Amino acid sequence: MRSLGDQVRDWHLGAQAVARGDWSSALRLFSGISEQPARICFNMGCVHLLAGDPEAALRAFDQAVTKDPCMAVGFLQRGVANFQLERFQGALSDFQLALAQLRGNTVIDYTQLGLRFRLQAWEVLFNVASAQCQLGLWTQAADTLVEAISKWPERAQDGLDTALNQVQKQATLQPRQVPRGEVFRPPRRHLEHLQPVDFLGTAKVVVSAIPSDQHSGLQPQQGHQVEPRGNKTPAPTGRVLSGHTSPALFHRPPVSGGPGPSACEDPLGAGEAGAEGPESSVTVTVQCAFTVALKAPRGADLSHLRALLAQALPHQAQQGQFSYRAPNDAGPWTPLPGEEQLQSAWRDAALGPRGLQLQCRGAGGRPVLRQVVAQHDYLAQGPEDLDLRRGDVVDVLCEVDEAWLEGHLDGRIGIFPKCFVVADSACEEPPPGPRPQAQAD
């Protein structure tokens, strides 16, 4: 007997085969799952419909609704199979059963169960009317469409009005069905368990922070030392920027002008950036998965900054989006879509002592609208959800509706409830109470 992991893997591979239009591979993979649950039977029925075999689809949907009598979408698809077989009375009965399983609701959202489809009450009523037209019940079909119009969003009533006009002229309608290629997919948490786990982790390449080091070796980690600014031979240690999650600070040589400060002397360009000329180099701090300090000519354009960043983090440089934070470090990150916004950021940076601070984030080039912070843990309920842990900072990519957001976190994209997060700026104030006192060396 095959293991549960193998069956989940076949389910996942079968869904991928449907997405690329390989019906035979999808049916073979779904058929190999033992004791097929209702969702697998539903998937097979959808594939048979796509392959042009409504008779086989009807048998598969029969099994699906037998195993799950409350599967409204299963009755809908079985009605479509009966309709294609010109069994219009059976189709009408199935569409009415689907409507009954809605239990007075206007929509059933199957997304959390792995099917990217929302079954709307007006769609089921439309299908009821399409079967009534085929049976010659024109008056009943018109009445059904009037009821469907009452359940359709106001902004989209024109489509049903057109259908009503067709029925009044005794023109038939074609039923609606689940979008092509959409099937139930396995829960993402099950897929994550199929991946091999590396308990030892992977090594990270660390670039030496010593200006004179020619990459011949790595400098051992040393304790934090405070050196006077005028010291010409600072201790050769890397320095982790406070407040960032980055494990190291990468130091790159200046692109133009004279030699700049070492990583220990002036990692953020404090104090000296304002005194240098317009053609001199300044420090640009870019937050990615790591925090990287780059030396760039003042006023450098976006392409120049991406080229510098690509020397250390090529993937982020290609896919990420630059955002800017004001010199006081209190405001939110503002996206920099073009050169005009970047030059404005350069002008603001000239007023502060810390150089230019940028953030490079994003998902496949998609713009980041804003950032939010998770206030509660959220366990994904379906493959489209995004797992959250309290304190996670999430890039918001779009607003799905009034209650849900789509976001990007640690290379993953998904939706999550808006009520579980707050704006990033709302979490920047320090908690009340005395602050710890710094100890002088």
Automatic annotation (TrEMBL):
Residues 269-278 have a biased composition (Low complexity). This is NADPH oxidase activator 1. It is found in: Cell membrane; Cytoplasm. Residues 213-278 are annotated as: Disordered. It comes from the Eukaryota. One of its GO terms (biological process) is superoxide anion generation. Residues 367-426 form the SH3 domain. Functions as an activator of NOX1, a superoxide-producing NADPH oxidase. Functions in the production of reactive oxygen species (ROS) which participate in a variety of biological processes including host defense, hormone biosynthesis, oxygen sensing and signal transduction. May also activate CYBB/gp91phox and NOX3. Gene3D superfamilies: Phosphatidylinositol 3-kinase Catalytic Subunit, Chain A, domain 1, SH3 Domains, Tetratricopeptide repeat domain. The gene is NOXA1. The lineage of its organism: Eukaryota, Metazoa, Chordata, Craniata, Vertebrata.
